[in-house]
Amino acid sequence: MVLFNVSRKDTTPFDGQKPGTSGLRKKVKVFIQPNYLENFVQASFNALTAEKVRGATLVVSGDGRYYSKEAIQIITKMSAANGVRRVWIGQNGLLSTPAVSGVIRERIGPDGSKATGAFILTASHNPGGPNEDFGIKYNMENGGPAPEGITNKIYEYTTTIKEYFIAEDLPDVDIATTGVTNFTGPEGPFDVEVFDSASDYVKLMKSIFDFESLRKLLSSPKFTFCYDALHGVGGAYAKRIFVDELGAQESSLLNCTPKEDFGGGHPDPNLTYAKELVARMGLGKSESKGEPPEFGAAADGDADRNMILGKRFFVTPSDSVAIIAANAVEAIPYFSGGLKGVARSMPTSAALDVVAKSLNLKFFEVPTGWKFFGNLMDAGLCSVCGEESFGTGSDHIREKDGIWAVLAWLSILAYKNKDKTEDKFVTVEDIVRQHWAAYGRHYYTRYDYENVDAGAAKELMSYLVKLQSSLSEVNQIIKGIRSDVSNVAHADEFEYKDSVDGSISSHQGIRYLFEDGSRLIFRLSGTGSEGATIRLYIEQYEKDPSKIGRLSQDALAPLVEVALKLSKMQEFTGRSAPTVIT
């Protein structure tokens, strides 16, 4: 039993420690300033009620990015000093964001303890390394991100903080070795348990999916598979689930060794950054070597996002959640009793809306931010949800879940190919095209303009709001750009009233809704660590079966031209092209 003392340290506030919907994200060089991390952690403890800190059990882990190991030791020592009873840490400091949510909700410690919250160390899909991004966020006892009421309190405390508490003489914990270390401080015992990062999550997935049918699929000579973790924390789960449990070949795993700098890559699972997977699946610019696999998937840094690919075929995230919802009851045992409801973020295409209407399901359109889905799930109103930014999930946890989405797709493939006697294998592309034939197709793309001057980005958004005051003027401008584009029927700034807690979220994105069901959405995103990111979403709905097979860029070309000229994108930003197109 190691004794430790508590030190009170003087400090002064830093500017700009306001956590967004995804926590606090900054460059590593910002986080390593003296007291910067400490201020935010102490402000978080101060913002929580006493019973969620004193005597509590907290999870402290993340995606393993640069500075995580040092941060885990600091947060552990501050937890001890603030009266926390025990800290749980994933081995090597690794836990995916969905796994943390699952651990909070499901795990019971050796002494019967349950976690009441977590500090998650991640900057999600942003790069890692000494000159790149770091992040921290707090999740609550339901496993979901802290609500706005808590994040606002955290921010308020960061603006006035004068002291923090830390057990400086507490020895660093060996996070590479599983086991419990016992300490004693002024308020009594304090324990740190390092536990296997994957076991609890694997157990949860086995309670949701039919692993036997998935093993049968992966052993089929007609099926080939590839999974790319982009050197993120998803690699800590890939071998355990896909190889050990489901029998995939190890050669089907790409970049599945977690690295502090994600191997120098950008751990964002899209067609731009998942280059190796995209090439292997036959979607690269050059001809692929050999026949591509039937199924491919990728994860981001903290493994909560996913990209789904078929052989030479990209599944949009908006289509993905709609197809999962349409097939969940038949293909996934967890949903065999039916879906409670479905939900999507506002910028996500309306493909899910059409499924919900057809299946007579409750449907919700919410602002971007997983906490809005969490409220619906806690109220028993939502089973499956998703967002266009490669996030898909269900009510098994309160975060989006990349590996869950992969297993959902594998389950649909297994179901569609069950008991088939003919040679034809039902592919990912077959499933998507069958879905379009049944529900119509939502042609969809997103343009990201990253690290735009923040002032210029705000001016562009203000201009678009001002333009909405006269729809006749908007339609006149549009007809001058493209006469073959429908008129705008409605334009607004999206506002959401939460049906559970009554809270109102304003200024959630600028919408132009067209008479034919098309949409243009403009949003400022807060997920980068510097500058502003303008996201432009373009959607065209097509019900005519003879027109659902067009190339997406051809179908969307008129709307793209309208969006760029109507917004004066180049004039405001100086950009002639987006940074990323998805």
From TrEMBL:
Residues 17-164, 200-309, 318-419 form the Alpha-D-phosphohexomutase alpha/beta/alpha domain. Residues 1-21 are annotated as: Disordered. One of its GO terms (biological process) is glucose metabolic process. It catalyses: alpha-D-glucose 1-phosphate = alpha-D-glucose 6-phosphate; O-phospho-L-seryl-[protein] + alpha-D-glucose 1-phosphate = alpha-D-glucose 1,6-bisphosphate + L-seryl-[protein]; alpha-D-glucose 1,6-bisphosphate + L-seryl-[protein] = O-phospho-L-seryl-[protein] + alpha-D-glucose 6-phosphate. Its cofactor is Mg(2+). InterPro entries: A-D-PHexomutase_a/b/a-I, A-D-PHexomutase_a/b/a-I/II/III, A-D-PHexomutase_a/b/a-II, A-D-PHexomutase_a/b/a-III, A-D-PHexomutase_C_sf, A-D-PHexomutase_CS, Alpha-D-phosphohexomutase_SF, PGM. GO terms for cellular component: cytosol. CDD domains: PGM1 (cd03085). GO terms for molecular function: magnesium ion binding; phosphoglucomutase activity. PROSITE patterns: PGM_PMM. Pfam families: PGM1_C_vert_fung (PF24947), PGM_PMM_I (PF02878), PGM_PMM_II (PF02879), PGM_PMM_III (PF02880). Transmembrane segments: none annotated. Keywords: Carbohydrate metabolism, Glucose metabolism, Isomerase, Magnesium, Metal-binding, Phosphoprotein. The keyword Isomerase applies. Catalyzes the reversible isomerization of alpha-D-glucose 1-phosphate to alpha-D-glucose 6-phosphate. The mechanism proceeds via the intermediate compound alpha-D-glucose 1,6-bisphosphate. This enzyme participates in both the breakdown and synthesis of glucose. Belongs to the phosphohexose mutase family. Monomer. This is phosphoglucomutase (alpha-D-glucose-1,6-bisphosphate-dependent). It comes from Lupinus luteus.
